[in-house]
Design a protein that fits this description.
The complex is a heterodimer of chains A (84) and B (716). Chain A contains 2 helices and 6 strands; from the N terminus they run E-E-H-E-E-E-H-E. The radius of gyration of chain A is 12 Å and the shape is globular. Chain A has a 6-stranded antiparallel β-sheet with strand order 1-6-2-3-4-5. Helices cover 15% and strands 39% of the residues of chain A. Chain A has a single domain, classed as Roll (SH3 type barrels), CATH 2.30.30.90. Chain A has 84 residues and is an alpha+beta fold. With 716 residues, chain B is α/β, with parallel strands linked by helices. Among the domains of chain B are: 163 residues, Rossmann fold (3-Layer(aba) Sandwich), CATH 3.40.50; 90 residues, Orthogonal Bundle (Helix Hairpins); 45 residues. Helices cover 65% and strands 8% of the residues of chain B. Chain B is built from 32 helices and 10 strands. The chains are: A alpha+beta (84), B alpha/beta (716). Chains A and B meet through helix 1 and strand 5 of A and helix 3, helix 11, helix 12, helix 17 and strand 10 of B.
């Protein structure tokens, strides 16, 4: 299984969370917000200045800095084709 | 038994779940807003009567979880553990069920009687979600009431469920974490019970054990050493087995439990169609090119609303107080200077005026902020600005308070309430006075035309503002890398769906926060204003009154005898009055402090007159101008006084003029700022730190500028 960092997804791409790494506080916050392994995440958009990013997880929208998105390893499940 | 029964209810829930609306519907206007002791978190309480039952409602901070990582979460769980409410109501956003239930599951673990309010059930239905609440209620072991907060639906049913839950102590179901973890929980639980050292009435043993496995720092500090050590061993065993730390596994199991329950009880019609409108708004509002212009337009709107609409009202208030002061002054015969008159007019009325003059701006600001927050735009603003703000160690949300600082520091500091993290909030509060506020403008308006030729005026003014911004950025970075060091707070923030705010909740938000300013900061501002008045009025110079009174009557007699022009005569009397004021101020404590400070302010190029006016300027920055007028015996002047500009030119160089502006920009914020910092940071410590820190910074920078400037002038 090939995993990539959540931060490297392109807008519209979906992935399934494989692992959450990073320091304890960040990791705990991420899993509390529902980024747990096996969950589907979709990268919705990148902020106008290039950071942070917005993802959809468990049906709601969450923003996180690329720094934090790096600690989420995902397996790409769909390329997505959002007409934007 | 007492005939009146009192039930305590704590209202919990995720941010944006509509907790506040439910709280407001329950308690109406009978609320009390304050802060939790020592922290910046708002504490709201209200009362509600149902027959012979009185229900005390505590509003807990909105949280997503109950960890020890944030103050809000710690408060929420400590209130539940320590105040032992009879019932906890968890307000759940039914349209975002899984993540909202994650908090509910943790309250279930705390073993308190729990009622779930499935709020926004109309939105959930509109999104094609059908929730079998009866079945879900059985699976979770707690009653569920459907509500629509903004329309007040389901509130009666909620009250009934609360009363019922307080009678039957129904225990919610517990999440099971699988064999490996349950074994460790059991071992720790037994050890805790055997030790007898922990107050188990307060803390459920199973909850303690789970928290220990999660490595919760607060609980680790509460249990005896051997148990803490044992929990570390258990954590290691679990991590070895699963390959992930226990807190991650436990969170996953909780979500697993929720997802299982939802699969049985929730039917979704069309999953992909959800969030459609919000998504479309977002594609414009956070658009790569459009986002920043839209953001700036909104910020301009807030600014306009706060100051352009607030200032005329503030001016109106100002005129009212001036009129009041005048009519009270007229109660005394002209030419008589009574201490009581001075206390009432210059001390109390001026002080009350100082408090109320900010009210219109504060009301409008909080209304504007309530619109931004309730509509969901605030989170987008943070999303857009975070990259810039993160560079200086702050949060995206810090941008708005700092921007408001250009208008007035008071609303700016109050706007930091939107920041959830204490370190971000304190840093923003501490540097906010460096954004040059409107009250400093009269000082610049007086000095710049006095010393600088026309084509230099704009660049000088611009440089002052720029220096303020640069210093704020540098200080924020410095504070974040020294005093408020520590791992950067994760910017993991929900972007809630856009919502149309209701007028009622907007007005309530506005009023609550403004009233807090009036009650808490108001009293301090009034007190300090009277103190500063006393400083510039006392002690009185013996014989001063009589001497000038004699002088005035001599001049008046002379006028009659020599048949002088009445205007000429009035001018002479006014001159005498001005020099009386000047002499009185010089003799007063403020004047003496000014003189005593002279050696200290010399390196900045200042004399005792400037120092005295600076002491007065702590009441409000613009007072500096009036005080300089008094010092130069030309009476209370405004920033357009050519006479005062001439005096300044005669006595000081352009370099000193620039240094005065620089010092006024950076130094000691006004008493209102001190009071609001004290109120918002929850302690005098930060107010004192801000005051001394900024004054010291101003001193160092102004001295360097003056000395270097003088050397350059001498050398060139």
């Amino acid at each position: 299984m090939i995993t990539v960092e959540l931060s490297s997804l392109k807008p519209g791409q979906k992935g399934r969370v494989a692992r959450v790494t990073g320091d304890a506080a960040v990791r705990k916050r991420l899993v509390d917000m529902g980024i747990t392994s096996g969950t589907e995440v979709e990268l919705l958009r990148v902020a106008p200045l290039g950071d942070p990013v917005e993802v959809r997880v468990k049906g709601y929208c969450l923003s996180l800095r690329k720094e934090e998105a790096k600690s989420v390893k995902v397996e790409i499940i769909s390329e997505g084709n959002r007409a934007r | 038994m007492a005939e009146r029964k009192v039930i305590t209810v704590a209202i919990a829930g995720n941010p944006n779940a509509g907790k506040t609306t439910i709280f407001n519907h329950l308690t109406g206007a009978r609320q009390h807003v304050g802060n939790y002791p020592g922290v910046t978190v708002e504490k709201k309480e209200g009362l509600l009567r149902r027959g012979d039952i009185e229900i005390r409602v505590i509003d807990l901070p909105g949280t997503y979880s109950l960890t020890a990582y944030s103050v809000e979460e710690l408060i929420a769980r400590n209130v539940v553990l320590e105040e032992k409410p009879d019932v906890v109501v968890d307000v759940v956003d039914a349209s975002n069920l899984e993540r909202n239930l994650y908090l509910a599951v943790q309250f279930m673990e705390l073993g308190v009687p729990l009622v779930l309010a499935f709020n926004m059930s109309d939105i959930a239905r509109a999104r094609g979600m059908e929730i079998d609440t009866q079945k879900l209620s059985r699976l979770l072991g707690c009653p569920i009431v459907s509500t629509v907060g903004h329309r007040g639906l389901g509130i009666n049913a909620l009250v009934e469920a609360i009363v019922k839950a307080s009678r039957e102590s129904m225990r919610p179901v517990q999440v099971r974490y699988g064999h490996e973890i349950e074994t460790e929980i059991k071992k720790l639980q037994d050890a805790i019970m055997a030790s007898g050292l922990v107050n188990l009435n307060k803390y459920p043993a199973r909850w303690l054990a789970v928290k220990l496995l999660e490595g919760d720092s607060d609980v680790l500090a509460k249990v005896p050493g051997p148990i803490a050590a044992a929990s570390q061993g258990a954590r290691n065993r679990i991590e070895n087995f699963f390959g992930d730390p226990p807190e991650v596994i436990i969170a996953e199991q909780r979500y697993g439990f929720i997802s299982g329950a939802c699969q049985q009880c929730v039917r979704r019609a069309n999953v992909e169609a959800r969030h459609n409108l919000s998504d479309r708004i977002d594609s414009i509002v956070t658009h790569r090119v459009l986002a920043i212009p839209i953001f700036l337009a909104f910020m301009y709107g807030v600014f306009y609303f706060t100051f352009a609409l607030g200032d005329p009202l503030a001016d109106l208030g100002g005129s009212f107080f001036a009129l009041l002061a005048k009519s009270i002054s007229n109660l005394w015969p002209p030419g008589v200077h009574s201490s009581l008159q001075s206390l009432i007019v210059d001390g109390i009325i001026a002080g009350v005026g100082n408090v109320l003059v900010f009210m219109p701006n504060i009301l409008f600001l909080f209304l504007a902020i309530a619109v931004l927050e309730d509509s969901g735009y605030m989170a987008r603003a943070a999303f857009i600005m975070d990259k810039v703000m993160h560079r200086i160690g702050l949060h995206g949300k810090s941008f708005i308070p700092l921007l408001l600082g250009f208008g007035c520091t008071i609303p700016a500091i109050m706007a930091t309430r939107t920041l959830e993290n204490r370190r971000d909030r304190l840093t923003t509060i501490l540097v906010a006075p460096l954004m040059s506020c409107g009250a400093r403008l009269p000082i610049y308006a007086l000095i710049i035309p006095a010393f600088f030729p026309r084509n230099w005026q704009a660049p000088v003014l611009w440089s002052i503002y720029l220096i303020g911004i640069i210093l704020a950025v540098v200080s924020a970075k410095l504070l974040r890398s020294t005093l408020f060091r520590g791992e950067a707070e994760p910017f993991v923030m929900e972007l809630p769906p856009y919502r149309l705010p209701t007028l009622k909740s907007l007005l309530l938000h506005m009023w609550e926060r403004s009233a807090l300013y009036l009650r808490k900061a108001g009293t301090i501002i009034l007190g300090l204003s009277v103190l500063l008045w006393a400083m510039s009025s006392y002690p009185e110079k013996p014989g001063l009154e009589q001497r000038y009174a004699a002088e005035v009557s001599r001049v008046k007699k002379e006028c009659v005898v020599k048949q002088l022009d009445p205007e000429e005569c009035q001018r002479k009397v006014a001159e005498l009055e001005h020099s009386r004021q000047s002499e009185a101020l010089e003799y007063s404590l403020a004047g003496r402090v000014g003189r005593a400070l002279e050696p200290l302010v010399r390196p900045m190029g200042f004399d005792w007159r400037i120092a005295t006016a600076l002491v007065g300027a702590t009441a409000a920055k613009e007072v500096f101008v009036a005080q300089m007028g008094i010092m130069y015996s030309i009476g209370e002047s405004d920033e357009e006084s050519e006479e005062l500009r001439t005096r300044l030119r005669e006595n000081y160089s352009a370099l000193v003029g620039f240094c005065i502006m620089l010092f006024c920009l950076i130094s000691a914020p006004c008493v209102a700022t001190i009071a609001v910092t004290r109120q918002e940071s929850g302690s005098w410590k930060w107010a004192v730190f801000q005051f001394t820190g900024l004054t010291l910074l101003a001193y160092v920078i102004t001295t360097v500028v003056y000395q270097v400037g003088r050397a350059l002038v001498a050398g060139g």
